[in-house]
Design a protein that fits this description.
12 helices, binds adenosine-5'-diphosphate, 26% strand, 335 residues, ATP-binding, binds magnesium ion, flat, 39% helix
Length: 335
């Protein structure tokens, strides 16, 4: 049995050879102080965020794109593999996608965790490469392709040609930063305290990076937000507008655009010419922010498209390697 794992900061996806994506759950582990093992993993553990009593902690093992908690990461991989592929898993090979910023020590830790979860052989693939393959870019051709993967904790920007990453940037700005930008805005402008999950709900409901063309009704929308008043500590509801949320998101969105520009400036002129001609592809959950593609296109003068099912691109890229181990092995790095 061969398995591909997209170990994301927000979501972990498993791809089983011949079956496709078999698991998609939040990368969260709930643990009880002093106890061994996890109380809950994945979707069940995410439900506990912000609602845990003092003795229980909800951990994101990959916060900010680096492994912040090895034990929890290992527990999570083991749990997901067992859940998605029950029974015996003889001679399992795993392709695990890792953020390009991870250190050699962290790479080894991930390999170790995958081995403890039952892998006989573990291959790592860099996230932008997996995202590009999953989005259907011609990564092996002598042609520059640019992929921008906007995940929960990080955004990875890369130009790929001839099966290799030519230049890349990894920044610690992703969906979570967009959420905290909303939290900060609501606190400062409305004196209202809200939790991380509420901020994410606001972003998904009425967030945007730029006016959405042909959607005048979207511009007029508001979203009722419940939280706690900063001063008196009482529950309070505020109606947020689309324009307010867009303003709140401006700074992290600009940071992503700056990274795209810097990566283009870093790359050899032939390759940036290819990117100009063929465009930039957005993957990851952040690509779903309405009009982010238009905003990046307007800032760079380069056409931008969002991959089909951007939340699945990386897992599908790992999956392609799993389906076709022998011919794609050179895109993987053995550890
Ligand atoms: P990772 O690879 O780091 O696990 P994902 O690619 O799974 O991250 O993306 C998760 C991020 O995408 C989260 O921050 C989530 O809030 C964000 N996201 C998901 N859907 C949307 C949406 N419709 N609009 C904006 N952001 C979204
Ligand atoms: Mg990802």
């Amino acid at each position: 049995m061969d398995i591909g794992i997209d170990l994301g900061t927000a979501n972990t996806l498993l791809y089983a050879r011949g079956q496709g994506i078999v698991l998609n759950e939040p990368s969260v582990v709930a643990v009880r102080a002093g106890a061994r093992g996890a109380l809950a993993v994945g979707a069940e553990a995410k439900e506990t965020i912000g609602r845990t009593p003092g003795s229980i902690t909800a951990i994101r093992p990959l916060r900010d794109g680096v492994i912040s908690d090895y034990e929890a990461a290992e527990e999570m991989i083991r749990h997901f593999v067992r859940k998605a592929v029950p029974g015996r898993r003889p001679r399992t090979r795993m392709v695990v996608c890792v953020p390009s910023g991870v250190t050699p020590v962290e790479r080894r830790a991930i390999v170790h965790a995958a081995e403890r979860a039952g892998a006989r052989a573990v291959h790592l693939i860099e996230e932008p490469m997996a995202a590009a393959i999953g989005a259907g870019l011609p990564v092996s051709e002598p042609r520059g392709s640019m992929v921008v993967d906007i995940g929960g904790g990080t955004t990875e920007v890369a130009v790929i040609s001839l099966g290799g990453i030519v230049t890349a940037q990894s920044l610690r700005v992703g969906g979570h930063r967009l959420d905290t930008a909303i939290t900060d805005f609501v606190r400062k402008e409305h004196g209202l305290l809200i939790g991380e999950r509420t901020a994410e709900d606001i972003k998904v409901a009425i967030g945007s990076a730029w006016p959405v063309p042909g959607a005048d009704s979207f511009e007029m929308r508001t979203h009722a937000v419940r939280g706690r008043e900063k001063v008196r500590g009482l529950p309070k509801t505020v109606d947020l507008t689309v324009k307010e949320v867009r303003a709140a998101l401006d700074e992290p969105v600009e940071a992503i655009i700056t990274a795209v520009r810097a990566t283009l400036e870093d790359c050899p002129p032939e390759l940036s010419g290819d990117v100009m001609e063929h465009g930039i592809v957005l993957t990851g959950g952040g690509a779903l922010l309405p009009a982010l593609d238009l905003r990046i296109a307007s800032a760079t003068g380069i056409p931008v498209v969002v991959a089909d099912n951007p939340l699945d691109s990386v897992a599908l890229g790992c999956g392609r390697c799993v389906e076709d181990f022998d011919s794609l092995e050179r895109l993987l790095s053995a550890v």
